[in-house]
Amino acid sequence: MKAAGSLLGRTRAWLIRSLRPGAGGTGHVVGVLALLGLATYMFLIATFPLSLIAETQGLRQVFAIIGFVLWIGTYIYCTIAILRGNRRKRTIQVLALSGLGWSLLLFGVFGMNWAAPPALSFSIMLLCLSGKARGFATLACFALYIPITANVFHGDDIRRVLEEFALSTLIFYSIPRLVTFARELEDTRAELAGVAVSEQRLRWARDLHDTLGHGLSVVLLKLELVERLSERDPRRAVEELREARSLLRDSIGEMQTVVAGMRDTSLAGEVASARTILTSAGVQTEVKIADLDLNSSTSQALAWIVREGATNVLRHSDSTLCEIRLKAEEGRAVLELASNGPSIMTKRTPSGGHGLRGMRERLADLNGELQASGQTGGGFLLRAQVPLSGSGKPSGIRRMTAAT
């Protein structure tokens, strides 16, 4: 009972992930293809037993029903394993070959009612095997299927059955392959996003090491010298302590400068960073920035909006396109981040703040406001408005597009 509950729980989690778009799921395409595959299974399960029961009798009927159950069980099990990314496991490969051999045997014994299953099992075999093993299995399948077809069918029916075999193989190979390809793309996108974030952290760590490493090492050496001079030459020890204190103050100042550079990034730098990270994650990014007269506080606030908005697009949506726009409207600087996927802004973000609330608080200090809403036809729009310190008239517009 517990094992059955665990299996149902894993199946439910897999279905939710397959049907749900975004970073927590594999997208709409996977859901559609999964439903298509499920409908195919239902058709097979409903059709073949009826034909077997109607056209066979006695032990042949029992053998046909048992054969069908074993074949469909192997086919469904291998298909689920493929969709879960386990198609290269040895057990799955053996089951795929067994299903192919079993379907060919039943086709040879029962004739035309079993002309289709070998194509489905053959597609599963192509997905599970690779290299020479797949080549040998393909030759063996053709060497058995073509003579059986020639023995069961006659004339133009042979050509028709072989054409249907090729078409069925293509269809039932493509459906699971597209599903796995969509999942692999999603995993690659998440991995690239993680790499981009890791590179940024490494850059910050390198800056801290370069600025603090030397100063702290000198302070440590001077403190060791003080320990040795404390009894022999107290006056010299006091001088060394004063120098160590001065060096320590300088190191603290350098650390504050580095941290301030991390926190108080410029708007242009944050836009460039967002474009790089989003592009590396597979999101086509278009930037259209007007050259406005922004004071330091306004620029930093809008830079935070860009950082938080880009993080949201990256982590909480399945967007493939993002536009970052800055313009002037009625004496106000207007920053817009528009994406073509849904968005969730309520979670704490890694760069600080609590999503929408944190951004609204930053803008409120500047008499600004923030709007977050869905767009007509789908997508999400984040719009920040802040009063301009100067005339607010743009002197030019810079347009950049980044795409993978």
What are its keywords?
404 residues, alpha+beta, Single alpha-helices involved in coiled-coils or other helix-helix interfaces, Heat Shock Protein 90, 3 domains, 11 helices, 11% strand, disordered C terminus
SSE layout and pairing:
Blueprint: H1 2-19, H2 28-55, H3 58-83, H4 90-110, H5 117-128, H6 131-152, H7 156-232, H8 234-263, H9 267-280, E1 284-290, H10 296-315, E2 321-329, E3 332-339, H11 356-364, E4 369-374, E5 380-387, E6 397-402
Helix pairs in contact: 2-3, 2-7, 3-4, 3-5, 4-5, 4-6, 5-6, 5-7, 7-8, 7-9, 9-10
InterPro entries: HATPase_C_sf, Sensor_HK_TwoCompSys, Sig_transdc_His_kin_sub3_dim/P
GO molecular function: phosphorelay sensor kinase activity; protein dimerization activity
Transmembrane segments: 29-50, 62-83, 95-116, 136-153
How would you describe this protein?
- With 404 residues, the protein is α+β, with helices and mostly antiparallel strands.
- The chain has 3 domains: 2-189, no CATH class; 203-263, Up-down Bundle (Single alpha-helices involved in coiled-coils or other helix-helix interfaces); 267-402, 2-Layer Sandwich (Heat Shock Protein 90), CATH 3.30.565.
- The longest helix is centred in the middle third of the chain and has 77 residues, at 156-232.
- The chain has helices at 2-19, 28-55, 58-83, 90-110, 117-128, 131-152, 156-232, 234-263, 267-280, 296-315, 356-364; strands spanning 284-290, 321-329, 332-339, 369-374, 380-387, 397-402.
